[in-house]
Design brief:
Layout (H helix, E strand, L loop, with lengths): L9 E4 L8 E8 L4 E4 L4 E6 L9 E6 L2 E2 L3 E3 L9 E5 L5 E5 L5 E6 L12
Length: 119
């Protein structure tokens, strides 16, 4: 299944408690269809005292969101859907549906190989 969201993309949350907020994707978890977005869906974790951390600690950590609750952001800053296009040079790119701008290259154009005749 194609991935419409990649690590490093700027995305907008489209559903849930953080609807309307934007952030950068830190990690994509394809097996669970989840993404971790910087600064969104943060939870407070209390760590027990241990040898490494004798005082214990309170840490804020970004938790995963389901991939269906986020959408990539186009150049104008609005959430958009994504489609894949194959160009004439046979490279595959992700394109924003809303304005047609190119988001990233999925597969670059294959190198042209010279075919030799067998004698």
């Amino acid at each position: 299944m194609p991935r419409h969201i990649k690590s490093g993309d700027t995305v907008m949350v489209t559903a849930g408690d953080f609807k309307g907020r934007t952030g950068t994707v830190l990690k994509v978890i394809p097996k669970r269809d989840q993404v971790i977005v910087q600064g969104i869906n943060t939870k407070t974790k209390h760590l027990k005292p241990s040898q490494m951390n004798p005082q214990g600690a309170v840490v804020t950590k970004e938790m995963p969101l389901h991939v269906s609750n986020v959408s990539p952001v186009d150049k104008s800053g609005r959430a958009t859907r994504v489609r894949f296009e194959v160009k004439k040079d046979r490279s595959k790119v992700r394109v924003a549906v809303r304005d047609g701008s190119e988001l990233s290259v999925v597969r670059s154009a294959p190198a042209k190989s010279k075919k030799t005749k067998k004698a």
